[in-house]
Amino acid sequence: MDYRQCATRTTLIVMLVTATVVVCQTRKEFRYTVGPHASVSVVNQYGPITVTPAPGNQVVVTAVLHSDKVEIDQSQSANRVELISHLLPGSTSDSGRVDYEVLVPPDASVSLHSSTGPLRAEKLHGDVTLEGATANVDVHDISNAHVHVKTLDGPVILSNISDGHVEITSISGNVTLDEVSGPLVQVSSNSGKILYTGDFGSGGEYSLMSHTGDIDANVASYASFDVIARSIKGRVENDFLLGPKHTPFAIKAGSAFAGTLNKAASSVKLSSFSGKIHLRKRQP
Amino acid sequence: MNCAEFQQVLPGTEKGGRSAEQELHLQSCSVCSDLVSDLDFIVREARTLQASEEPSPQVWQSIQAEIAELRSELDLIAREARALQASEEPSPAVWKSIQAEIGDWQTEMASIAAQARELQASHEPSPRVWNSLEIALREEGLIRQPQRETVPMSSRRWRLGWLVPVATAALVAFGVLLYRPTVVNQGEVAQSASPRVFHTNNQVSVKDDQELLNAVGTRSPAMRVAYENDLRDVNAYIRDAEQSAAADPNDEEVQQYLMDAYQQKNMVYQMALDRSLP
């Protein structure tokens, strides 16, 4: 009997708390008509931002405000749409949180800033710029576009990026690239790990660089690239049988290797100061 | 004569018009003497106040305008009455209505005159009176000088905005100066000049970092730890790259590490001072 009473009370309290939280939230929707290659910028101190494509020429922003301690400043100037979460005095990371869902035309350029994130963008072919301190970043299915990502601690995951001009900098967040290719793919990490899975495309420049973070590249055996890998104080490993390649520095076994595979269409540079580098052959 | 008898006849007496008996009582009674002196003071002040509280020119102008308007209306009525009289002799009813109209106007003019007198009596004190009041209140400390506006947080935050370009320029210049490969006396340069420059720059960097962390901590205490850890990582990267570059100044690869480390630090500074992030 006591157990049932306790369970009933707990359920009521949970329902009450949930109802209170729901009542405190405010949902707002903004619609903007834009032309081709519109530019959409969302700056949100606390909370997620998700951007997905939608047919037509409208930008539709749905924002859920978690309290009245935050408001949204929004504007449209010609083809440029800008939304900023405006924190009011006394706001915290909870009360200042806003959840954004943004629908944009597929060719729109998107710039997202959030300290806590997460930040997500998918299926676009306009430029994507994402910046967040501790924000998790997830970008996938982007083609023929610039993808620029900056985080401090937030992990970065990019997948299915083709013909991309990719630049990623993260201090301690892990960076995972899955099937990412393009004319330029550049990753700079400090202590975060870099994991690349793919084939290095056909004719791009790839630079994966870290301070103490390990670098793992899982590459298909049919891939075509030349590679220079070097760790000043860490170890390097290579699973491929590479052709010879000239290097500007003396190759020291265990700390550097260089070579070519197939027709060497792409240029790959794997550099770590004290992290471990491993060029793996991806299992079919 | 006692006090009650003196005070009964007091309203009807003036200085110099009192009887010998009244004067005698006044000299012998301090209560009645004080009362008389108070009344004299009030009378003097009332005269002064009346003289100084003349209504403003606007009040007189509005009264004159009102009177002029009434006068013109009365003139109009008189002209009409004369014209009427000239054309045909009006009936007694017409004369009565004209007299009633004039009576109304006279009543209204009397009312306006009374209002003017009230206005004169109750008119707001002159600026001189307000000034003396303000001076008295200021001396009592009840009026204070308005405080200067405090600098808003956002502008205080932006005071550190200059750190980004300055720190970046200093760091990059330091890297270029210190590790540019030279043919002549490379070892000497590395051993003598470089350590001194590094020492100074390192001190500046630590100070800048601390200011940056303080700025971040002010805005968002929770983020301070994250930035502190990242700055520590980045500074370690810079230190490692600097030492490697000093050991082998001709290694281009190592110089790229150094540039990468500086760029990472630049990014941390930019994100910390970004207006949009807490």
Describe this structure in words.
The complex is a heterodimer of chains A (284) and B (278). Chain A folds into two domains: 92 residues, no CATH class; 149 residues, no CATH class. Chain A is globular, with a radius of gyration of 23 Å. Chain A is mainly beta. Chain A has a twelve-stranded mixed β-sheet. In chain A, strands 5-6-2-8-10-12-14-16-18-23-20-22 form a twelve-stranded mixed β-sheet, with no helix packed on it. Chain B is mainly alpha-helical. Chain B has twelve helices and no strands. Chain B folds into four domains: 45 residues, no CATH class; 31 residues; 56 residues, no CATH class; 76 residues, no CATH class.
In short:
The complex is a heterodimer of chains A (284) and B (278). With 284 residues, chain A is mainly beta. Chain A has one helix and 24 strands.
Key attributes of the depicted protein:
heterodimer, A: 284 residues, mainly beta, twelve-stranded mixed beta sheet, 1 helix, 24 strands, B: 278 residues, mainly alpha, 4 domains, 12 helices
